[in-house]
Known about the structure:
Elements: H1 2-12, H2 31-36, E1 39-45, E2 51-55, H3 67-81, H4 85-90, E3 92-97, H5 108-118, E4 126-132, H6 139-154, E5 157-159, H7 166-174, H8 195-218
Parallel strand pairs: 2-3, 3-4, 4-5
Antiparallel strand pairs: 1-2
Helix pairs in contact: 3-5, 5-6
Amino acid sequence: xxxxxxxxxxxxxxxxxxxxxxxxxxxxxxxxxxxxxxxxxxxxxxxxxxxxxxxxxxxxxxxxxxxxxxxxxxxxxxxxxxxxxxxxxxxxxxxxxxxxxxxxxxxxxxxxxxxxxxxxxxxxxxxxxxxxxxxxxxxxxxxxxxxxxxxxxxxxxxxxxxxxxxxxxxxxxxxxxxxxxxxxxxxxxxxxxxxxxxxxxxxxxxxxxxxxxxxxxxxxxxxxxxxxxxxxxxxxx
Length: 237
């Protein structure tokens, strides 16, 4: 628990105590990084009920974000997924879509910063990391990626090879219980992703909660300020 708060304070500074790491609060200066959607939560789960995080390196443009802002954006996305008790219990599966990725898209410093900020801090139960459509150039950075992930996560990497055929990836993923209805259309599935709508929906919900709390206080109903953190962190308090 102490490690979590130290890292949260280092990442968000004075905004670390923003109740929900809200878009209008702690993330107010990170909308550009958030809007990129480097990591997105897919609709639905795998066959075990695990959440699915979709990673697209090819959409990264270093001129549109700074490393620190992207770290906060990734923290926010992971935190959003961990709001679900089921996700905390069952874990998360990553799909890393490398289709069309070039060397310029592999921001090693940013990924290293994100990994260092989250690994061993947030209660992420990473069950598997699926690398799809890996290009030849991935060999140049794979050693660094593996080193950053560490020994435990390295054993959970599943590489689906460099065959640039969407249908092949879908069939491979379905063998691991990730079905077509939750796989993005980018790699041959049926899921439509609308990251901007997801952000807007979360912003509306956050504002509604804040307004509800404010009205309650206005009626004289004093409420203790509660900061939302993953419940599984409480167990180790």
